[in-house]
Amino acid sequence: MLIPFQKELDQEIIQNVSHALDEDLGFTDKTTGDITANLIPATETATATVITREKCTLSGSAWVNEVFKQLDPSIKIEWLVKDGEQLTENQPIFTISGNARVILTGERTALNFLQTLSATASQVSMAVSLLNGSSTKLLDTRKTLPGLRYAQKYAVLCGGGTNHRIGLNDAYLIKENHIRACGGISHAIKQARLLQPNKPVEIEVESIEELKQALDAKADIVMLDNFTIEDIERAVALNNKQAKLEVSGNITADRLSELSQLGVDFISSGALTKNVQAIDLSMRFN
Fold first, then answer.
1. What does the pLDDT average to over 161-190?
2. Contact, 222 vs 189, CB < 8 A?
3. Can you say how many angstroms the Cα of residue 15 is from the centroid of all Cα atoms in its chain?
4. pTM of the model
5. Where in the sequence numbering do the catalytic residues fall?
6. How far apart are CA 244 and CA 236, in angstroms?
7. What's the rounded Cα separation, in Å, for the pair 239 and 215?
8. CA 72, CA 25: separation in Å to the nearest integer?
9. Can you say how many angstroms the Cα of residue 116 is from the centroid of all Cα atoms in its chain?
10. Alpha-helix residue ranges (DSSP H) falling in the chain
11. If exposure means fewest CB atoms within 10 Å of the residue's CB, which of 1, 117, 125, 203 is most exposed?
12. How far is it, in rounded angstroms, from Cα 146 to Cα 212?
């Protein structure tokens, strides 16, 4: 799986894990901060297995690896599955062996990352399956959990989705308030072309009339915000492949299949990353 932001992702993994461990250990020493684990003899070793209690799409193995790397590089982890794989209920995910204190100290932080990112990947995978083999791509948004932007964008890829822009600097997305502040659709697009001629320009429209203005101004992508099915059909006909069309707003599982048959290029949904329910995972000492 090609990760276009691999360098940034690698940096974020280290930072994510460092902060999460500090948070869990009260910003104290990593070897003494877990007072419950310190009830166990310092030389005690153990082996444990992590399983999923429910069906899911796996994502987040690198965060698990980094947790135990930062705590104790001698910890051994054997992955039984890979990110992006579909798992069944009670399926083993990985085994871990080494110092018992360290395994227990890192357990919750590691599983927090794995359960959250697998939840994102699973939600995306379910949504992608509803596109019924159409050419329409499912896009994520910037509605990610704070501090986990690259992590959740990665999880979307694990689930078979497609990333929209990563942040505010890699593409224009001109929305209602931008349009008002700029003085109109045509002027906003013109300014974007002047300031960053090599950046893609996407603009949000709320009516067929605004779509016409966006097409006249040569937008690269037009987001149809909360359009009815009838208006989407009109938009596709009017556009006639001049620009890429994206549908957004009130995207539910019930609507995905129908929307994907209308000839739009993209469907975007913030729910993919913000409305996630953690996957139920469990670690058991062998």
1. 95
2. no
3. 17
4. 0.94
5. 108, 143, 175, 204, 225
6. 10
7. 7
8. 15
9. 10
10. 6-24, 61-71, 100-129, 149-158, 176-182, 185-195, 208-216, 229-239, 253-260, 271-274
11. 1
12. 36
